[in-house]
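Subgroup meeting minutes
Present: P.N., E.W., G.H.
Scribe: E.W.

1. P.N. recapped why we're keeping a running log of single-chain structure predictions: easier to compare across weeks, and new members can see raw inputs and outputs side by side.
2. G.H. added today's entry (299 aa).
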Amino acid sequence: MKRRLINNKIYLLIFSQLIFLTTGCDDNSTSPIIPLPERGSWTIYTPYDWFHDGKPYQSSYCTIYSDVASQELKQQLGAIADQRFSQILQLFNFQRISDFRYPPNYSKIEIYVNRNHPESINWAYWGGFIFTIRTSDISGIYYDYAVYTFRHELEHVFEFLIEGREVLGTEVWFKEGIAVHIGCMESNIFKTVETVSELEAWISQNQKIPGQGNPIAIHHDYPAGSNRDQYYKYFELAVRYLLDSNGMGKSYQDVLNLFYDLRNGISFSDSFENHFGISINDYEADFYDLMRSYLGDGR
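Output recorded in log:
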């Protein structure tokens, strides 16, 4: 999973807060016993070799770790995680929990709550994800941010657990599109594309970019000079069209079947065409015309 920077305007508001840490001196001559730092799965499957405080919180589906987050915050986030993961399972009508393929020696989702590390990232990997938040208060806008991010990242984790491997088999536009789409079901913190005028403005802005901003062209890498943040809106639009009854009218069962195909060694392109009734090449070639028609009523 490639690094996901938090660049949304609302995220910038959240991360503009500063964390001030203080240390104190103790006149007692007895040296304190300093516990050995501990690590988790994120040190295996991401570049971040971060310690945690040795006080994980156990929820039903997850183990919540952090550098300095309070137990209260861990508990609150554990409740958010359990509820949103349950919703994802219901969305896919998925009951075969024993069918999940966790990484070796793991049996629960691991979430690392990053409070003080300078990297402002949310990053899903096989078996868990990193969640960055700079405040201990998750009410109001911070709650909306947490809900969206947990739904988004837990959708990635769900796919990882179905495919059962370190690198996902879906193309960038699809795996990010389904994650954004599911994240937006409960939160409006991420603004989606709703009008033809937005679409035309995007096409105009990307005239000199290879693919002219076509999200289906983002199979693995982004073209040089492109706006990665804005692409996420069009990834979501591409997946929304596939699932909307006013679009192609496909189902989450089709998405799940695709995940299982990848697990069983079928290519993404073959599985996509089989379950969604259109080849990736044709979807890319016709994308803008399809979206003009789809968004037409919201001009």
